[in-house]
Amino acid sequence: GIQVEQSPPDLILQEGANSTLRCNFSDSVNNLQWFHQNPWGQLINLFYIPSGTKQNGRLSATTVATERYSLLYISSSQTTDSGVYFCAVYTDKLIFGTGTRLQVFP
Amino acid sequence: DTGVSQDPRHKITKRGQNVTFRCDPISEHNRLYWYRQTLGQGPEFLTYFQNEAQLEKSRLLSDRFSAERPKGSFSTLEIQRTEQGDSAMYLCASSAGMGGGNTIYFGEGSWLTVV
Fold first, then answer.
1. Which of 13-32 (B) contact A at CB < 8 A?
2. Counting one residue from A and one from B, how many pairs have CB atoms under 8 Å apart?
3. Model confidence over B1-39: pLDDT tens digits?
4. Is B103 in contact with A30 (Cβ distance < 8 A)?
């Protein structure tokens, strides 16, 4: 089956720093979503991004489907950005990556 | 749009007991998914429905697990004869349309602890 790998697995930042999270996938997919899982377990949709670039406030994402990767950029990080970030690719269901655990300290 | 709703949010049960979780998807979403997530791992696919039809079941879904979506609206996930290894968060998600062209939305999850 399709493999989805994320890097880095852990990231520690000071408030205000920028970061880039990467998602690699092993086969062609129909779409890709980025999620933020908060400390209470809620998976919050960040982007639906099968290809191209999207921006939402301090967050932006780019997917290069032909090269099978996606990037999530977080600028001017805040403590509320802490949590786990997942990318998930869609074949006939979502297959989740391994996640990046982000901790932002004041 | 009230979002995907799951009930109960937390359940503690003794080993060997049966438990049932309910999921109410976003109104008019015809796809409904169940996932399981253990600590430190990403969500793992269990099963999904297109309306009332169960289209795929993961090998993770042993014969102690059963899911239904009788009228194509809400869904239930039942675990019979629970084991400690069943302790996890069970996530429900829904989407509109037939395939991957639509955003999938997740509920807040149902935490199961088997003691």
1. none
2. 59
3. 579 999 999 999 999 999 999 999 999 899 999 999 998
4. no
